[in-house]
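Shift notes (night). Ran Cytochrome P450 while the centrifuge was going.
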Amino acid sequence: MEVPVREWTHWVTGYGLSRVSLRLMARRGDPLAQLLSIDSKPVRDIYPLVERVRERGRMSPVQGAGWVSADARIVREVLRDGRFRTLKQRDRSPFRIGQWILAKTDPYVLNLLEPPSMLVTDPPDHTRLRRLVSRSFTPRALDGLRARVHEVADDLLRGLDGRAECDLIAEYTTRIPIAVIAEMLAIPRDEISYLFAVSEWITSLIGNAAASWKDFHTATKALLGFDRYLAEHIERVRRGDAADSILSDVVHNGDLTQVENKLLAGLVLGAGFVTTTHVLGKAVVALLRHPDQLAALRANPEGWPNAVEEILRYDTTGQLAGRVATESVDIQGYSVQAGEAIFLLVGGANRDPAVFERPEIFDTTRANAREHISFGFGVHACLGAALARMELHIGLQSLFERFPQLALAGDPAYNGSIGLHGLTHLPVSLRGGSVVAS
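Came back to this:
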């Protein structure tokens, strides 16, 4: 295979060198490096590594990069502090020559981790972009979606009637959020299968600290196609050939550039589909491995909203967030210099024993479960949090009511992503059976 020089140079500078460094540090036993390398060396349970990072202190130095923290108070403080900015593509290299190479070899694909994506823009641009879509996620707007989420879940579950086993990821947990968010973006149902395929490559690129060359090359090609698809869909919406939607409102009433429109659509799609899919899958595993908790929810269905909060706390999907200090800052007694990064282990913050009593225990009645940080904090707090909560509640309660004997039929398969940690395969028996040991 002929290697495109420009693309390969970009990968080496932005991903390859970091990947080699992480592997070397992982081999030496560094727990953060091992966490960031799970795409090349998967681990069954990431939380022992998180706890090893915590043992080093509330904040601990990262060689050549800055700091790392799994402390809930520190994570919250950094996320809401305006003196920190989001990580950018240029931050992949600490050297000016590296940053110059990254800029010169930019493949110009639709990358949700590059501005003007709302995910990595800072105020005032972030405020402007967020305002355009916020009205679609108000309580009143979401109440209108509740019946539709029920309908989608019920239709999918009826389709499983009579089956003995299935892969719940492929046939249920992916399909609820994608159906809902596709309708919100006026994407036709017959195009959803394409979105499934693209989402896998998006995850491999933006969910890892340093993607492999193979993943980067394949994802780049996939994202070039996705860029063209979104451009065509936006034009379809602009012509008025699609129903009212978030995208229609933005295209017709906003003043965004074509690139901003595409990135906004891509982000809403990814955030509204991929993350909720992973939480749903891990939620099923947690509940099946804790039958006492599931039995309590069957006896008391009013407990589901709090159970959703505990699910979000107990096994986080967005395990990692990064920020860069724009000036010298004192954080809880730690001196962070301008330009230094802080890697925030959100999943670790959600298991901080200073906040959550016996955090390793899954307890759907936990009084302060809602204090988790799974939806972020500050200006970048997840806009679709209420929608995700609704889909989790309806999707899980409907599943276990329809199939009360549901059981694991094999080992769940996890992806190799620390940024979008979740399941790729979840074999279940719909008629009961032996639960696989945790």
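Residues 434-438 have pLDDT under 50 and may be disordered. The two ends are 42 Å apart (CA to CA).
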